[in-house]
Amino acid sequence: xxxxxxxxxxxxxxxxxxxxxxxxxxxxxxxxxxxxxxxxxxxxxxxxxxxxxxxxxxxxxxxxxxxxxxxxxxxxxxxxxxxxxxxxxxxxxxxxxxxxxxxxxxxxxxxxxxxxxxxxxxxxxxxxxxxxxxxxxxxxxxxxxxxxxxxxxxxxxxxxxxxxxxxxxxxxxxxxxxxxxxxxxxxxxxxxxxxxxxxxxxxxxxxxxxxxxxxxxxxxxxxxxxxxxxxxxxxxxxxxxxxxxxxxxxxxxxxxxxxxxxxxxxxxxxxxxxxxxxxxxxxxxxxxxxxxxxxxxxxxxxxxxxxxxxxxxxxxxxxxxxxxxxxxxxxxxxxxxxxxxxxxxxxxxxxxxxxxxxxxxxxxxxxxxxxxxxxxxxxxxxxxxxxxxxxxxxxxxxxxxxxxxxxxxxxxxxxxxxxxxxxxxxxxxxxxxxxxxxxxxxxxxxxxxxxxxxxxxxxxxxxxxxxxxxxxxxxxxxxxxxxxxxxxxx
Length: 490
Known about the structure:
Layout: H1 17-25, E1 34-35, E2 52-53, H2 70-83, E3 112-115, E4 121-123, H3 153-156, E5 157-159, E6 166-169, H4 177-180, H5 183-188, H6 199-205, E7 208-214, H7 220-234, E8 244-250, E9 253-254, E10 258-263, E11 269-270, E12 282-285, E13 291-294, E14 297-300, E15 309-311, H8 325-332, H9 334-343, E16 351-352, H10 355-373, H11 395-413, H12 417-431, H13 439-449, H14 454-463
Parallel strand pairs: 7-8, 9-16
Antiparallel strand pairs: 1-2, 3-4, 3-6, 5-6, 10-11, 10-12, 10-15, 13-14
Helix pairs in contact: 8-9, 9-10, 11-12, 11-13, 13-14
């Protein structure tokens, strides 16, 4: 603390928990200067929130802040200090310089030159932009500490167009942040060769409604993107202070759970909850078919007293737990993979991959297919058409459908895709109990399913007799008249 700011340390024991504890220990006076808005305050605890100023005015100094809100009082005190020449308002930043240069070939070149005679840095004129990288056959590191661009001698040596003086280009390049922080603006106007983005198009499209990115980007990339955007706002390139209205960070998908058992030096099993030091034990991976679950714990089937350590790790080649999506698509289909990734859990949470889980989703899609198309023929093929009939649905069937519609629509809006899929599973379970499958009901359900399992839904849509892709259809909307319960259990 002595090295921060002026080094002076302020203690307000009535309104800081650590100062309060210190004052109690050493029997120092505790004077309250902020009162809660309702006046109720625990005398045994420090009050650290905003409130009403008390015991804070001074007749000799002319500073009267009693009765003011603490936020307003802070501004009043600052103004009083400045007006009396006792000090000036200052904001302390803890920002460090941003290292924005890389000694590598691949990257945006800096649009500056250095004059030979003075070493003065001169920016390129606008008609010299964009500055492009030279073609290099060898862009490996030089081994001398100099960037690879120093190999492009003809490119490095240049002339200042304004003075004609000899100069050299910057041979370091910008980091990946230079191009990745504002790409969304070019999506709005990708073919514009005169400006970064047309003002009218930026005003129409911006800011980004929803930005979806991995949790690993939630700090670095998004921090830099906001910084970049705010600079562009300050110079009048964009019309909004913030680049994104809504940010969603989806969680990582971890590898399958790994079960680890422990043996001592004599080869005997040691339970994971043992008092013995597990660091001295030999770790051994146990196949899933050798374990069982008891309560919240996993144990050996042959010895339930031996508890195992169960943990899922981030997928990596070195760990050997990477799931190849091509293999999953080959065995279960693209829709099963897509649906399972959404069904695993909340979008923002990290989730553990489970082959058993995707098999369950695959079965659901199979049940959906059979609900519409029917069971396969003896040779394994399916008959043309569907099991659906063009009859008027009952009120109960419409109620089940519209409840499903309402839930799916709400869950999509809240990005709770896993519970939206659960709602569709409940619909299929209910529909299997019906004597008939009304076409209008099944049509609407297939439209509900289409964002989640587009390939299956498209195939079912054509089986239902539609000539045009369902991509042209309106997403179904629930009607309130079917959402009311006809009976209420008291």
